[in-house]
Amino acid sequence: MAEEYRIPQHVAIIMDGNGRWAKKRMMPRTYGHSQGSKTVEKICEDAHRMGIKYLTVYAFSTENWSRPESEVTTLMNLLREYMKDCIKTSSKNNMRVRVIGDISRLDADLQESITKLEEASKNNTGLNFQVALNYGGRDELLRAAKKLAGDYKAGVLSDEALQQLTEAQFEEYLDTKGIPAPDLLIRTSGEVRLSNYMLWQLAYAEFYFTDVLWPDFDKKELQKAIDYYNKRDRRFGGV
Ligand code: IPE
Ligand code: IPE
Ligand code: MG
To answer: Which is catalytic among the residues 18, 46, 64, 85?
Structure first.
């Protein structure tokens, strides 16, 4: 008997290859980033139509600050534009938007747009869309450990509570608090590494790698990733 086709509840994406996509066209890397941001918008709509409930994309890593200043500026300006436009699109598409990562290092106006967008979209019941911005898995875990230590010191967390702390309770300290772990990770552009993405949350995700560069990623490619996911046998340590 044919098994039921499963749609992953949460898909995480490492959107990679914008620079190479532009280079192939003899264009500046920044052109690749602006095309890449258009792809994000389309994929959000496609994911929602396919029945995906949570989508988390890696937009800027804690390591991406090491890129040339002009590229960092372009990326920040694109994110700035995105957060502003997204107030409208999120209400049109009933999408809830959250940012994961340490936003305290971003310019004040960008932080403000993020807070506004999160607040404006918080009651939307369609796609849950997370943008990882100045995000690093190690940084997230370190910040979580510091918050936990702060709670212990302040007496919010007793000796006993600390002794018995569960994984679920620890997850409350992560940026992804309240968001289920990804079922499927997609990385474009042929690189086969995590680049510090969602280290805790991806523990049991299925991994799908494709050579397609992010600006070329579309609904058909997303469908291929989900088909791949359906061929996997998720055992979670069992038999
Ligand atoms: C991904 O594309 C976007 C970000 C990391 C911000 P890249 O800029 O990494 O593109 P490649 O990997 O150099 O082609
Ligand atoms: C990972 O891509 C970060 C994002 C997609 C935002 P990178 O292009 O920065 O990763 P590496 O340097 O190839 O590992
Ligand atoms: Mg890259």
So the answer is: 64
Read off the pLDDT of residues 8-67 as tens digits, 9 standing for 90 and up: 999 999 999 999 999 999 999 999 999 999 999 999 999 999 999 999 999 999 999 999
CA distance 108 to 203: 34
**Once rounded to an integer, what is the mean pLDDT over residues 154-161?**
98
Burial of 118 (0-12, 13-18, 19+ CB in 10 A): middle
Q: pTM of the full predicted structure?
A: 0.97
Residue ranges covered by each domain of the chain: 10-136+180-231
Ligand 1: distance of its center to the CA of 175 in Å?
23
16 among known catalytic residues: yes
- Is 139 one of the catalytic residues? no
**Strand pairing partners for 98?**
130
Choose one of 14, 20, 70, 72 to mutate for the ligand 1 pocket test, by most ligand atoms within 8 angstroms of C-beta: 20
CATH topology of domain 10-136+180-231: Undecaprenyl pyrophosphate synthetase (3.40.1180)
pLDDT value at 165 more than 80: yes
